[in-house]
Write a structure and sequence with these properties.
The protein is mainly α. It has 10 helices and 2 strands, in the order ααααββαααααα. This is Tyr recombinase domain-containing protein.
């Protein structure tokens, strides 16, 4: 109801915004800008690991998270036989949040990158089980801790001065925000596309996906006021980890 009243006020209509009843809102995550993402990926790409295969793993795992909106656990635990499954140009996410499986289509550029990576990795570990093998134990998958530590290191090396620091999960947020912003620029109707996006990123409820309207409004303050296509009511939902 509060979100509906807020929306009505933005449209110049009379409305009363009720108190929050003492509910503490979830903090908005930090969404890196395009320039910040380029700086982070530059640091990741130029890192030299003592385990040579990690020089292939790290740039690819972060790109897959950014370009497909994967959760960190979904990227780390991606199996080798789930690449090009159920068909070429797709990956299958097994045991996502809520133990749900889903198929994710890759863009042509990302598919090409993944194919080159897979071929080079096969030359090192031809019988590997995991798409992203770990560093100290390549028979296992790369750990979420390793991914988080590398992202933090790369971010700190960029020298960006901000009150908040992004995490690998920020790449998932950036994917959704950039997707919705692209719809805005294409004059597409997000109400028709949100259900597809919700399934693509593995949300258990479409309401969780609508939460990103709030993130979009925070990142681009005048965006929702300027675009008539953003006419959906923004429900207030729990911030999904």
């Amino acid at each position: 109801i509060r979100q509906l009243a807020t929306y009505m006020l933005k449209q110049g209509k009379m409305a009363y915004v009720a108190d929050s009843c003492g509910i503490i809102p979830h903090p908005f995550p930090y969404i890196p800008s395009e320039l910040e993402l380029k700086a982070v990926f530059s640091e990741i790409d130029h890192r030299k690991w003592i385990w040579p295969w990690m020089n292939l793993v790290m740039p690819m795992v972060f790109r897959l998270m950014l370009c497909c909106g994967l959760r960190i656990s979904e990227a780390c635990k991606l199996r080798r036989n789930n690449f090009n499954a159920p068909k070429p140009g797709w990956i299958t996410i097994q045991g996502g949040k809520g133990q749900k499986d889903r198929a994710v289509v890759l863009s042509s550029d990302l598919f090409e990158l993944c194919s080159v990576y897979d071929a080079r990795m096969n030359a090192i570990f031809p019988y590997r089980k995991w798409f992203f093998p770990g560093c100290t134990s390549p028979i296992g998958y790369v750990s979420a801790t390793t991914v988080r530590n590398e992202f933090t290191r790369a971010w700190n090396e960029t020298g960006v001065n901000s009150s908040k620091k992004p995490t690998p999960h920020s790449l998932r947020h950036a994917f959704v925000i950039n997707t919705v912003d692209r719809w805005r620029k294409e004059k597409s109707d997000p109400d028709k596309l949100i259900p597809y996006l919700s399934r693509y990123i593995g949300h258990c409820s479409i309401q969780n996906t609508y939460h990103y309207y709030q993130l979009l409004d925070r990142k681009f303050p005048s965006l929702l006021e300027q675009e008539e296509c953003f006419n959906a009511i923004v429900p207030e939902v729990d911030y999904e980890k």
